[in-house]
Amino acid sequence: MDCRIEEIAAKALKKMGDDRYRLSLVVAKRAEQLADGATPLVDIDKNKLKFADIALFEIAEDKITLEGLGETDR
């Protein structure tokens, strides 16, 4: 994954329908899961990136969605 984080964030935002609030919810929830020991769903060294960055990569690659994280309020 050589892309710049800004490019990944833009791609992830598109996957969330350009809804920044929705994106932030998914990133926060997934980053918490990663911090609690969840395995990244993308081939990436989780010791070299922040959990939020890993979550962005996962969203950009269609590995996770808000619905997939169990959120029901949206």
UniProtKB/TrEMBL annotation:
GO cellular component: DNA-directed RNA polymerase complex
Catalytic function, reaction form: RNA(n) + a ribonucleoside 5'-triphosphate = RNA(n+1) + diphosphate
Signal sequence coordinates: none
UniProt keywords, alphabetically: DNA-directed RNA polymerase, Nucleotidyltransferase, Transcription, Transferase
Keyword Transferase: yes
Keyword Nucleotidyltransferase set for record: yes
Top-level division of the source organism's lineage: Bacteria
EC number: 2.7.7.6
NCBIfam families named among the record's database cross-references: PRK00392.6-2, rpoZ
Family listed: Belongs to the RNA polymerase subunit omega family.
Function as written in the Swiss-Prot or TrEMBL entry: Promotes RNA polymerase assembly. Latches the N- and C-terminal regions of the beta' subunit thereby facilitating its interaction with the beta and alpha subunits.
Subunit (UniProt): The RNAP catalytic core consists of 2 alpha, 1 beta, 1 beta' and 1 omega subunit. When a sigma factor is associated with the core the holoenzyme is formed, which can initiate transcription.
Protein name: DNA-directed RNA polymerase subunit omega
Lineage: Bacteria, Pseudomonadati, Campylobacterota, Epsilonproteobacteria, Campylobacterales
Name of the gene this protein is made from: rpoZ
